[in-house]
Amino acid sequence: MGYTAAGKHKIKVKDKFFTKYIDAVDIQKAVQKISDQIYADFKDEVPLFLCVLNGSFMFSSDFMKEYDGVCEISFIKLSSYKGTQTTEEVKTLIGLTEDIKGRTVIILEDIIDSGITVNHLLEDLQKYGPDHLKVATLLLKPEALRTDVKPDYIGIEIPKDFIVGYGLDYDGFGRNLSDIYKIID
Q1: What CA–CA distance (Å, rounded) separates 101 from 99?
Q2: What CATH code would you report for 3-183?
């Protein structure tokens, strides 16, 4: 099953074809940009970065390598997708284990699509009294937003296409690709 090469810049993931969309070099530039912006804003603090699993693991890993300040990282796992569509129901699979009262918490998201998941997370975390609660996303689909979520740090804005690679998946496949691919209709 998995994925297979289907040409120079095309792959097949399960039953769908994808074409190369964002090169690994451009992804790393976006990660560096976000890291630099957050460091400029919080260099005198010790932020807690909150990696949203599963999709954000590659972005969070690369981000942490680039971040120049003292910091901590923790992980939560949320689920809201099945196949290529959002279920619009957010399930918490692994929750927050740190005390965030009075802390600077920065959510690291791979992608904000409808905004439903990150909106749910922001509402949940706000209850615990952080001093600062920010959102950094590698990718943003502004045309797909269905909430009033406004990320504080954005790597790359993209259209509503379904994508895989660099942590993003189609039914669990394609996460390990270093480039990002978009679905071919």
Answers
A1: 6
A2: 3.40.50.2020
Kindly tell me if the per-residue pLDDT of 157 is higher than 50: yes
Q: Token digits for 151?
A: 């990320």
- Point out which residues pair with 170 in neighbouring strands: 173
Tokens of 172: 């669990």
Active-site residue flag, 68:
no
- Order of strands across the sheet with 16-22? 3-5, 10-13, 16-22, 180-183, 163-164
* Helix (H) or strand (E) segment spanning residue 13: strand 10-13
- The two counts, helices (H) then strands (E), for the chain are 3, 11
Domains of the chain, by residue range, sit at 3-183
Catalytic residue chosen out of the listed positions 62, 113, 169, 179 = 113
pTM score:
0.89
Instruction: Output DSSP code: residue 170.
Output: B
Evaluate if residue 171 carries a pLDDT over 80.
yes
